[in-house]
Amino acid sequence: MVQRSFFRIPALIWASLFLIGTVFYVWRLQQPQPLIEVPADVLPLQCVSYAPYYKPGMNPTLKDTFVDPVQIEQDLQALSKVTKCLRTYSVSQGLDYVPKAAQKYGMQVILGAWIGWVDADNRKELELAVQQANQYPDTVRGLVVGNEVLLRGEQTEARMHEYLQWAKQHTKVPLTYADVWEFWLKYPTLEQEVDFVTVHILPYWEDKPVAIDQAVAHTASVMGHLGTVFKKPLLIGETGWPSQGRQRFRAKPSVVNQVLYVRGFLQAAKQTGWQYNIIEAMDQPWKRELEGTVGGFWGIFNDQLQPKFNLQGPVSERSDGWLPYIIALVLAAGAVAYGVHKKLPASQKALLGVVAATLALHGYLQVDYVQLAARNPLEFVALGGFVLLGWGLLLLQLRHWLGLAPRSCVEQCLLRLFAIGLFVTSAGLAFNGRYLDFPLILSWLPLIGLLISLLATRQPEAASAQLQQTGIWFTVVMVLLAANLSVAVAMMEPGNLTAWWWCLVCGLALFVLPAKSMQLAPKAAGD
Question: Where does it primarily localize (predicted)?
Answer without folding.
Answer: membrane
